[in-house]
Amino acid sequence: MNFITLKGKWIIIALISFFIVVTFLFLNSFTQVTGGIFSSEDDEPYHINMITTEFKSETESGEKIESYRWDPGTVHLSKGKPIKLSIYGVNGKEHPFIIEGTDVTGTVKKGEETILNLQFNKSGTYRLICTAHETIDDNGPMIAYLVVD
Ligand SMILES: [Cu+2]
User: Fold this and answer.
1) Ligand 1 centroid, distance to 38 Cα (angstroms)
2) Which fold has domain 46-148?
């Protein structure tokens, strides 16, 4: 009788331990799903790395064509979250830019990192436009799309 009671205690302890382990694993996997690279702590800026790059080609008639680009060309951001956008100038001497719909302006220079601390409080698509290479005729279009949801 005493043996059975003791065995019953161990079963209860084993069940409680199992429950704790399962709960821990569940919470841990939940954290991994929601706390990945797409979200961060509220006071920690979300860090985006971008570079300036250049594509070059030649048409069949021998005409050289090129296009400067921001890379990546599309970035998804969370509304109301602080963002640290780092842009490193790789190709092109300099790229003066604006972010359409904001008063953010600046210039990215070759070999230098430009850091912007941003926060978008309205959803929408904001275009990061290099004003020196805005269109195909200017060796662009050097436009990146900042999609804020
Ligand atoms: Cu440019």
Assistant:
1) 28
2) Immunoglobulin-like (2.60.40)
